[in-house]
Specification:
CATH superfamily of the largest domain: TolB, C-terminal domain
Structural class: mainly beta
Distance between the termini: 40 Å
CATH topology of the largest domain: Neuraminidase
CATH class of the largest domain: Mainly Beta
Number of strands: 34
Number of helices: 3
Strand content: over 45%
Amino acid sequence: MKNYRYNKIFYLLFIISSIACSNNKVIEEIKISTHNNNELKIQIDVLSKNESQVYIEYWCDSLNEKYVSLTSEKGLSHKLVLCNIIPQANYSFKVISIIDGKKIESKKYTFKSRALPVWLQDQFKYTCTDLNTVPAQFKEGLMLMNKREAPGVLYLVDYKARLRWYHMIDGIGFKVARFTQDTSIISILGKNDEPTSYGSQILEINFLGDTLLYLKKWQGDLRQTIHHEVLKRNKNEIVTLFVDEKVLDLRKIGGGKNDTVSSDGILILDRNGKQLWKWSVFDVADPLKDTGLLRNKKDWTHANSLNYDKDSNFLISFYNNGQIWKVDAHSGQVLWKFGKGGDVKMPLECNFSQSHAVHINKNGSMMFFDNGVSKKQSEVYAMQLNQKEKSSTIDIHFKLPTEVYNERMGSAYLVNDTAILSCCSKKHITVLSNAKGKLIWTLNTGIPPYRVEFLTPLQFAPFLKPLLD
């Protein structure tokens, strides 16, 4: 399995520090370097004199906070990676060796982290008139976003626009990225000549940058172009959207005898690429009944997000038909359609047109970002659904300011019960607002992220901790 890393050729490699420990009864040698040439990951290589387990206690000299690395397996050679790193800061650390259950602490060692490479500096800038109005939950969390063009980059950014973690790959971009329940990030990879959110590879990494899963098109049963979404069903099953095509006779509506209509499907694979389940829009809908088919035949429905309902069935959102569907994850039956022309009753105020990032929020509501193309104003919705009666009520609804109108892509996630993080991709802007849409905080990004996912400290522990200075 290939382990992706971006080889930096524009500046000098990190100078390895080697510390001889001949006078130490436990440690033979310590080496300090960057991990995979990443300035925010420091690698400590420890050579022990006796078989032991090892971990590192470390701290930034200017902060009153101690961090702890993972613990190595028992052996003589140990590789520890430190992630809580601030650029251009002085650090101290101690090596803790565990021998026969006894902890032996080394003397204190030091290193200084280097500056971020120029192209990573000034990527993010925030605006906030009063940081006291920003909820504590938001200050403690991080935002996950991705760069879709090569070289691809995953970023974790905090409320002061500080880059806390990143991962780079060369020659390909992160088209879509999702945090998983296994404390990993899974993504769709695609080259620059592939469409915006479309790709041909699936990569899962952990916070140390280790490759956990890597699938390529034509490996196993992965034969399709994948797009817009990838997530895990469990530790062994991967779910993604794919492009499905059907040849139809469209002469009656002005098309060709053997015309191709492109739509969407859901594909479940195991970690080796074996197909476990497949579903297609063509299984449940007839394109010939759509009066606008000729106009949209190259991308008939345009599915743009996929997630789970509370009962583990699928929620899938479509840009072109203005609907969200619930699909049975076993039979493939469409259980209901929410949106214009759907079969779930909606309040008059719920008048959305293009939904993105559909998900069930922590309050149990179905939440999504509405591009609002027909109104030229984007909105955020969280809807409580009575699925038995096929009715709905509004839990949250607000309009974003017209100056951040976002006609494509986007997302909206709860930070707490009164604060929502919304990504306006085309504007390169992410905003924190209250439940009425009043802006509290704004982040300008050097990239147009497909969406911005909010992570809590529990999700990125033990690899990272918030900087609450």
